[in-house]
Every structure is written in structure tokens, then in C-alpha cells.
Design goal:
Length: 413
């Protein structure tokens, strides 16, 4: 297959309709030579902050001289972003060759897996072929049944902030969701748990780690965040971040403790490697600023709350541009943004993406109206952005990673 054919094929694979669990993926990987058995893993799950934390850990490993694969989802502007080695996305030729091989084997042996499992297998193959020392894996959905959990062991497991998301698949409560996400913890492998969680998450983590003989590590809370220089103190040491937002200091503390775990295991990682890695770890679509446009992929109430906390520091008018997927907690997102608008005199423009899952703009506008805020409807996103760019203040794009990627692409082009 060509690159374009590979991308079209991957996106044509059903997301959830195939057999639940990883049995077919294990067959596929076995026929591919079990590439995952040749790799060392850091496994990152959670609800919010997975991508940022995984990127921080990856950059720390790179700064320590390790050839590091990074597997994340979703992509912002180009599919290749999901599979990286030492920060560089997989090239078109390698992606086409790898996808072609995975397709050939999956069809030959009847191991036709879900879309995400297919991409996971391709990433494993590519990381092995490129002789990676480590692979940092970001969980796609949940943990216990996630395709990335096909791995048998990891050097360290990491869970970021756990909140209510994908409830239709993972459960209706934090208790249920956290149990699913804790499914990535491996026997004897330490777990680093994001320091701000609901009490039930800590309780469940202690129980799981005790059963598996795994050490539970909860980072201290960072101190003295300086937004101007993006610095903070952690256990008496000063660190600098490449990413904006005080909430990133919590992700950084989690990444620091994961790196310390690896150092204790004998890997050659020191304090300077950690500082260097955090100082260059950058992920687009997280408080990303392009001129007067702030792009943030916040797509659940927990992430939106963190975003709004940062926006409270702005002394200019904020104009929201938002779209939300129908399977997200759009009611919770709407209430938070509406509350900010009423406090700060901000405005809202709702738009719509050409994605079946996208909540119709009219429905989203009605939800804002029910909260006492009149939202203007403007479609498509490019037209909405063009109109808002004529206004004063800052434009805040949020509500969906797909919208963040669309606007990022428009601004780049």
C-alpha cells in the first residue's frame, strides 16, 4: 500500500466492533514475531495528562541517551505524530511498509483486530525494527482491555489524573473507571500515581499494588510555580517546563518520579537528564498559543476546569470557539464555560466538525442558552475562526482534540 492507501485502510478498520480483548492482537503479534517482547516499556494511562506525561518521560529518556519510541493518540494534524522515535514522527515510507505488513499478516491468519490494536501492532513493529531502547506507551482507552496492555511487563506503570470519561465503556463512577485503568499495573513493577486524585483512586491503587507486589509511588505536590518563566520547585530542586500551565507541574512531578524509578532500576538517568527532558518536552494543543489564538484540546470537565483556571489570569476579553463530541460530557463542559463567561464577560461561538460523533452546533448552542449564555453558531470551523480573528482579545479553542487539530492545521497553512 502507498502512504495514502495505508491511512485510508487504517481509518476504515472498525473501532470497537471486533472481538473484545487482546486475544486476536496476541495472535497477530505472534505471527509478526512478537516485536513487543524485544522492547522495554513505560506504560502511561489515566484520563487527563497522559500525552503530556508520556512526552515528558520520553524526552527525559532521550536526554539520557536512550533511543526512545513514543506511541500516543490521537494525532493533532497528521497521523504520523502517533508513532515517534526520539521525537521524530514515523516517515511516510516506513508507515506504509509497516502498515502493509501488518495488514498482510492480519488477513492471512484471520487476526483482524480493531483500528487501535492495528496501530499498536504497527508501532511495536516499527520500534523493534528501529532498535529502540525504550517504548513509552500511552493507553488508548481504559487500561485492562486496552490494546497497549498486550505487553507482559513494564519497567514502570504511570497513571495520570483519573476522571469521568468514556463512561459508556469504562463505568459510571470514578471507582469503576479507576479499577479499569489500574489494569495496566504489572506484578512487581512500580506504579507512579498522579498526586491529585479522589480518595477511592488511592484506595484502589493500594489494593492492586499490594496484590501484585508492586510499589506505589505518589509524588509530592510541586511548589512555587512561576508562570512567567514556567518554573516550579519539586523536593527542593528547580525545574523549567516547555509547556504552559500550572497543571503541567503535576504531570511533571509524575514524570520525575517515573524517571527516578528507572534510575533506581539501574538505568543511566540523572537529575540533569530530567531537567533537560522537562525543559524541551512540548506537545501541541495544550495551552498552545499562536498569535492571539489559544488552542487547548480540553474535552472533559476536568481538563476544561484546568484550562479555565489558567484563563482566569488573563486580563483581556476571552472569546471561546468550541465544538464537542456527542459521547463526551458536553453538559459538564458547557456549564463550566458558561460560568466563566458570566463571570468574565466572555463570549462563545459554537461550530461543528465533519465527524459523525460531533454534537450538532445547534444542540450545543441550546445547552449554552439553558445555562444563560447566548452562543453564536458559525460553521465550518475555518469560517468561525475567520470571523473571531476580527475581534479583540484572545480566542480560546477548546472542547475537542479534533477541533484543536483542525484549527492548528488552519493556522499552520
Amino acid at each position: 500500500m502507498t502512504y495514502e492507501q495505508s491511512i485510508n485502510y487504517i481509518h476504515s478498520i472498525p473501532k470497537f466492533s471486533r472481538i473484545l480483548g487482546n486475544d486476536l492482537l496476541r495472535v497477530l503479534l505472534d505471527r509478526l514475531g512478537d516485536p513487543q517482547k524485544s522492547l522495554r516499556f513505560i506504560h502511561v494511562g489515566g484520563t487527563n495528562g497522559k500525552g503530556s506525561t508520556a512526552t515528558m518521560i520520553s524526552e527525559i529518556l532521550i536526554s539520557a541517551g536512550y533511543r526512545t519510541g513514543l506511541f500516543t493518540s490521537p494525532f493533532l494534524t497528521r497521523f504520523n505524530e502517533r508513532i515517534r522515535i526520539n521525537g521524530e514522527p514515523i516517515d511516510d515510507k516506513s508507515l506504509a511498509e509497516t502498515a502493509s505488513r501488518v495488514r498482510e499478516i492480519s488477513e492471512k491468519y484471520g487476526a483482524e483486530v480493531s483500528e487501535f490494536a492495528f496501530i499498536t501492532a504497527a508501532a511495536m513493529m516499527y520500534f523493534k525494527s528501529q532498535k529502540c531502547d525504550f517504548a513509552v506507551l500511552e493507553v488508548g482507552l481504559g487500561g485492562r482491555l486496552d490494546a497497549t496492555n498486550v505487553i507482559e511487563k513494564s519497567d514502570v506503570s504511570v497513571l495520570t489524573a483519573i476522571g469521568l470519561d468514556h463512561c459508556q465503556y469504562l463505568g459510571e463512577t470514578i471507582n469503576e473507571i479507576s479499577k479499569e485503568k489500574l489494569g495496566i499495573v504489572k506484578p512487581g513493577s512500580p506504579l507512579v500515581l498522579f498526586p491529585k486524585q479522589e480518595a477511592v483512586v488511592f484506595e484502589n491503587a493500594k489494593k492492586v499494588c499490594a496484590e501484585l507486589g508492586s510499589e506505589l509511588i505518589v509524588p509530592d505536590l510541586p511548589e512555587k510555580y512561576d508562570s512567567a518563566e514556567r518554573s516550579f520547585l519539586y523536593k527542593g530542586e528547580k525545574y523549567y517546563l516547555a509547556m504552559d500551565g500550572e497543571f503541567q507541574t503535576l504531570n511533571a512531578a509524575t514524570a520525575i518520579e517515573a524517571a527516578i524509578c528507572l534510575a533506581k532500576k539501574g538505568y543511566n538517568i540523572n537529575r540533569e537528564n530530567i531537567k533537560t527532558g522537562l525543559g524541551r518536552a512540548k506537545i501541541r494543543g495544550r495551552l498552545d498559543r499562536v498569535g492571539n489564538v489559544i488552542i487547548d484540546g480540553a474535552h472533559n470537565p476536568q481538563a476544561v476546569s484546568a484550562l479555565l483556571k489558567e484563563l482566569e489570569e488573563f486580563d483581556v476579553t476571552v472569546r471561546f470557539l468550541t465544538a464537542v463530541m456527542d459521547d463526551k460530557d458536553h453538559g459538564g463542559i458547557t456549564r463550566l464555560i458558561a460560568g466563566f463567561c458570566k463571570r468574565r464577560g466572555a463570549s462563545v461561538t459554537v461550530t461543528e466538525l465533519e465527524i459523525p460523533r460531533c454534537l450538532p452546533a445547534e444542540n450545543l448552542a441550546a445547552e449554552f442558552e439553558a445555562c444563560g449564555v447566548i452562543a453564536e453558531i458559525k460553521k465550518p470551523p475555518a469560517e468561525a475562526l475567520r470571523k473571531l480573528e476580527k475581534s479583540d482579545g484572545v480566542i480560546c479553542v477548546c472542547g475537542s482534540l479534533y477541533l484543536a487539530g483542525e484549527i492548528q492545521k488552519i493556522l499552520t497553512e
